[in-house]
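Hi P.,

Sorry for the delay on this. The queue was packed all week, but I finally got your sequence through. Input first:
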Amino acid sequence: MTAEPLAEPTAEPGSRWPVPPRDGYTVDDLFKLPDLPPHTELIDGSLVFVSPQRRFHAKMIELLMNGLRRTIPQDLRVEREMTVVLDRRNGPEPDLSVVRAEAVTGLEQTRFEAADVLLAVEVVSPDSEARDRDTKPHKYAAAGIPHFWLVEMTGANKHPVVRTYELDPVSKSYALTGTHREQLKLGDPYDIDVDITLDALKSL
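Then the structure:
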């Protein structure tokens, strides 16, 4: 399905926004539409634009990415902000993904299939709380992604907390396996040991 003609300016002089098809966009449209903002996602056939992020968001992704890569097996890779195709109408972009190495095809790659993703990580932002806490986890689980992490900034001292979830293959829903505030130490999807203290975050 291709996008229909662009609409007349609606926000600022000279702005032209794509008019969605009657049945919504598809993943193919997501990669064909010109001039979309970076990190645009597709949720239920609708384009979702990303607002400017807090420094916490960027540094928390960096902290986890460094920690995940430190112990990752040779048959897996850590990817940052890459589209994951869940179905034809859903292409979210997790902040971090752990994928099978065999699914990495080159530097021009733009997406991964859900079947190649072992872990999806979302760092909650003020503008995306509902999507990060509710919409995306449900869709990741329905697509069969085995592990999901939700990362937030909590408390008066704005301390990071990572909640880890594992997929129940029967119910296709996630069950909480732990709440981590100082050390993120896990055996799945591989042996992981990451310092997530506030000091570690601030040192970046």
